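Quick one:
INPUT:
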Protein backbone atom coordinates (compact mmCIF):
# COMPACT_ATOMS: atom_id res chain seq x y z
CA UNK A 1 0.00 0.00 0.00
CA UNK A 2 1.18 3.50 -0.78
CA UNK A 3 0.31 6.41 1.52
CA UNK A 4 1.74 9.71 0.35
CA UNK A 5 0.96 13.29 1.24
CA UNK A 6 1.30 16.47 -0.81
CA UNK A 7 3.90 17.65 1.71
CA UNK A 8 6.02 14.55 0.97
CA UNK A 9 6.17 15.52 -2.71
CA UNK A 10 6.61 19.32 -2.65
CA UNK A 11 10.22 20.30 -3.37
CA UNK A 12 11.19 16.82 -4.64
CA UNK A 13 11.70 15.56 -8.20
CA UNK A 14 7.95 14.80 -8.25
CA UNK A 15 7.27 18.56 -8.03
CA UNK A 16 7.43 19.74 -11.65
CA UNK A 17 6.93 23.35 -12.82
CA UNK A 18 6.32 24.98 -16.18
CA UNK A 19 5.67 28.66 -16.94
CA UNK A 20 1.88 28.37 -16.43
CA UNK A 21 1.52 25.52 -13.94
CA UNK A 22 2.96 23.42 -11.15
CA UNK A 23 2.28 19.67 -11.03
CA UNK A 24 2.82 17.54 -7.92
CA UNK A 25 3.03 13.98 -9.18
CA UNK A 26 1.72 11.87 -6.32
CA UNK A 27 1.70 8.67 -8.40
CA UNK A 28 4.06 7.95 -11.29
CA UNK A 29 4.79 5.00 -13.59
CA UNK A 30 7.28 3.59 -11.08
CA UNK A 31 4.50 3.27 -8.50
CA UNK A 32 3.03 0.51 -10.68
CA UNK A 33 -0.62 1.61 -10.72
CA UNK A 34 -0.97 1.86 -14.50
CA UNK A 35 -1.82 5.58 -14.28
CA UNK A 36 -0.24 8.68 -12.80
CA UNK A 37 -2.09 11.09 -10.50
CA UNK A 38 -1.15 14.71 -10.02
CA UNK A 39 -2.22 17.67 -7.90
CA UNK A 40 -1.91 20.42 -10.49
CA UNK A 41 -2.29 24.19 -10.08
CA UNK A 42 -2.54 26.49 -13.11
CA UNK A 43 -1.76 30.12 -12.39
CA UNK A 44 -4.37 32.88 -12.67
CA UNK A 45 -4.38 34.80 -15.95
CA UNK A 46 -2.45 32.13 -17.87
CA UNK A 47 -3.35 30.46 -21.15
CA UNK A 48 -2.03 26.94 -21.82
CA UNK A 49 -2.45 25.11 -25.11
CA UNK A 50 -2.17 21.33 -24.77
CA UNK A 51 -2.34 18.34 -27.07
CA UNK A 52 -1.54 15.03 -25.41
CA UNK A 53 -1.01 12.93 -28.50
CA UNK A 54 0.43 9.96 -26.58
CA UNK A 55 -1.64 10.09 -23.38
CA UNK A 56 -5.23 10.16 -22.18
CA UNK A 57 -5.89 12.62 -19.36
CA UNK A 58 -8.78 13.24 -16.97
CA UNK A 59 -8.87 16.54 -15.06
CA UNK A 60 -11.12 17.02 -12.02
CA UNK A 61 -11.33 20.62 -10.85
CA UNK A 62 -11.32 21.10 -7.07
CA UNK A 63 -10.79 24.89 -6.89
CA UNK A 64 -10.79 27.98 -9.10
CA UNK A 65 -12.29 28.65 -12.52
CA UNK A 66 -11.13 28.24 -16.10
CA UNK A 67 -12.44 28.34 -19.63
CA UNK A 68 -11.70 25.24 -21.67
CA UNK A 69 -11.81 25.46 -25.47
CA UNK A 70 -11.85 22.41 -27.73
CA UNK A 71 -9.64 23.61 -30.58
CA UNK A 72 -11.16 21.13 -33.03
CA UNK A 73 -14.80 22.09 -32.56
CA UNK A 74 -14.48 25.57 -31.04
CA UNK A 75 -16.72 24.48 -28.16
CA UNK A 76 -16.11 26.38 -24.90
CA UNK A 77 -16.78 24.96 -21.41
CA UNK A 78 -16.66 26.64 -18.01
CA UNK A 79 -14.67 24.46 -15.60
CA UNK A 80 -15.40 25.00 -11.89
CA UNK A 81 -15.02 22.87 -8.76
CA UNK A 82 -16.86 19.59 -9.21
CA UNK A 83 -16.35 19.55 -12.98
CA UNK A 84 -14.42 16.81 -14.77
CA UNK A 85 -13.11 16.88 -18.30
CA UNK A 86 -11.59 13.82 -19.96
CA UNK A 87 -9.44 14.07 -23.06
CA UNK A 88 -10.63 10.73 -24.39
CA UNK A 89 -9.77 11.55 -28.00
CA UNK A 90 -6.34 13.17 -27.50
CA UNK A 91 -8.25 16.44 -27.83
CA UNK A 92 -6.29 19.54 -28.75
CA UNK A 93 -7.41 22.18 -26.24
CA UNK A 94 -6.60 25.42 -24.47
CA UNK A 95 -7.23 26.37 -20.84
CA UNK A 96 -7.65 30.03 -19.84
CA UNK A 97 -7.44 30.43 -16.09
CA UNK A 98 -9.79 33.00 -14.56
CA UNK A 99 -9.19 32.10 -10.89
CA UNK A 100 -6.22 30.02 -9.69
CA UNK A 101 -7.16 26.58 -10.91
CA UNK A 102 -6.46 23.46 -8.88
CA UNK A 103 -7.15 20.01 -10.23
CA UNK A 104 -6.53 16.32 -9.78
CA UNK A 105 -5.12 15.00 -13.08
CA UNK A 106 -4.86 11.35 -14.09
CA UNK A 107 -2.73 10.18 -17.03
CA UNK A 108 -2.80 6.90 -18.94
CA UNK A 109 -0.16 5.76 -19.74
CA UNK A 110 1.35 7.08 -16.51
CA UNK A 111 3.92 9.85 -16.62
CA UNK A 112 7.44 8.84 -15.67
CA UNK A 113 8.18 12.07 -13.82
CA UNK A 114 9.78 15.06 -15.50
CA UNK A 115 7.49 15.53 -18.54
CA UNK A 116 6.62 19.08 -19.57
CA UNK A 117 4.92 20.28 -22.77
CA UNK A 118 6.95 20.76 -25.93
CA UNK A 119 6.24 23.70 -28.26
CA UNK A 120 3.12 21.90 -29.58
CA UNK A 121 1.69 21.21 -26.12
CA UNK A 122 2.67 17.53 -26.33
CA UNK A 123 4.18 15.36 -23.59
CA UNK A 124 6.87 12.93 -24.82
CA UNK A 125 6.70 9.22 -24.08
CA UNK A 126 9.50 8.51 -21.61
CA UNK A 127 10.76 5.09 -20.57
CA UNK A 128 10.37 4.37 -16.88
CA UNK A 129 13.75 3.50 -15.37
CA UNK A 130 13.65 0.61 -12.89
CA UNK A 131 14.41 1.72 -9.32
CA UNK A 132 17.56 -0.49 -9.14
CA UNK A 133 19.07 1.09 -12.29
CA UNK A 134 18.53 4.56 -10.88
CA UNK A 135 20.14 3.70 -7.58
CA UNK A 136 23.15 2.22 -9.39
CA UNK A 137 23.65 5.35 -11.51
CA UNK A 138 23.19 7.79 -8.59
C1 LIG B 1 -4.79 20.74 -16.46
C2 LIG B 1 -3.52 20.39 -17.16
O1 LIG B 1 -3.48 19.58 -18.01
N1 LIG B 1 -2.43 21.07 -16.76
C3 LIG B 1 -1.13 20.84 -17.29
C4 LIG B 1 -0.28 20.00 -16.39
C5 LIG B 1 -0.59 18.54 -16.43
N2 LIG B 1 -1.94 18.20 -16.25
C6 LIG B 1 0.26 17.80 -15.40
O2 LIG B 1 1.32 17.35 -15.78
O3 LIG B 1 -0.16 17.69 -14.24
Amino acid sequence: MIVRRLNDVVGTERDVSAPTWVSRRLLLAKDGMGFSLHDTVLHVGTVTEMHYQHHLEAVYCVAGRAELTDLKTGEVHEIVPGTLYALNDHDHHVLRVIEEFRSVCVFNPPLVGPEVHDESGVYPVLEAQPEEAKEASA
